[in-house]
Amino acid sequence: MITPHKYYYVTVIDGKRKGFLLGSYTTHEEALKNIDRGRELALKHDERADFYAFGTAGSDVEIKTVFGK
Hints:
The chain is of the alpha+beta class. It has one domain. Helix content is 25%, strand content 35%. The protein contains two helices and three strands. The protein has helices spanning 28-33, 35-45; strands at 7-14, 17-25, 53-59. It has a three-stranded antiparallel β-sheet. The radius of gyration is 11 Å and the shape is globular.
C-alpha cells in the first residue's frame, strides 16, 4: 500500500547518488506516467543514464527537481 503524500516525483538512483528529476505531481499515477520521460531527459544529459534506476517518490514538502515538471 502506498502512503498518501501531497507531492510526487520521478526519481533516479546511481549507486549512492539519488535525485529528483521531475515533479511535483499531485498524484502517484502522474509521476508513474512520467518515468520514461525522466529517463529520456537523463539520457540526453548523461550517456550512462541507461544504467541508472528510475522510479517515483512521495513527499509532504515540495522539492526542487532537475528538470522541473
